[in-house]
């Protein structure tokens, strides 16, 4: 395997719960109101230190999407997915954006594993 390059982020970040590799700055967070099969998830504009898997079509709560799973570049953990194509007109804003599953996969800026307001309503989509 080749040399591993990890981008270091300055500021408050979200990082891998398993190896603490930074994924995104708090400024790149679009929404905490998404839901996935393991609980809540975060939508990000930009994510670093991930590898992108093969694209596949998935039916989600908001319709068909072409997505690619994303994995931590250091430990290889599956941490979420990237929206490649949204087929519903109302979902086009997701294209090129990233979902990171929150409950078991990401540490919040305070180092906590579940940086969510339980009273915040969930929107968005994930696999059914």
Automatic annotation (TrEMBL):
Keyword Metal-binding included in the entry's annotation: yes
Yippee domain boundaries: 12-109
Gene Ontology terms for molecular function: metal ion binding
Keyword Metal-binding (UniProt): yes
A Pfam family the protein falls into: Yippee-Mis18
InterPro entries given in the database record: Yippee, Yippee/Mis18/Cereblon, Yippee_fam
Keywords: Metal-binding, Zinc
CC annotations in GO: ubiquitin ligase complex
Family statement: Belongs to the yippee family.
PANTHER family reported in the protein's UniProt record: PROTEIN YIPPEE-LIKE CG15309-RELATED (PTHR13848)
Protein's name according to its UniProt entry: Protein yippee-like
Species annotation: Brassica napus
């Amino acid at each position: 395997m080749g040399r591993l390059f990890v981008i270091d982020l300055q500021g408050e970040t979200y990082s891998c719960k398993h190896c603490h590799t930074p994924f995104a700055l708090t400024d790149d967070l679009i929404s905490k109101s998404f839901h996935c099969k393991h609980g809540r998830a975060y939508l990000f504009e930009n994510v670093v230190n991930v590898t992108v898997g093969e694209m596949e079509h998935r039916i989600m709560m908001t319709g068909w999407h072409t997505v690619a799973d994303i994995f931590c570049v250091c430990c290889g953990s599956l941490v979420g997915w990237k929206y490649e194509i949204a087929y519903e007109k109302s979902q086009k804003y997701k294209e090129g954006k990233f979902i990171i599953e929150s409950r078991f996969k990401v540490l919040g800026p305070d180092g906590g594993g579940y940086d969510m307001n339980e009273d915040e309503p969930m929107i968005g989509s994930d696999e059914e």
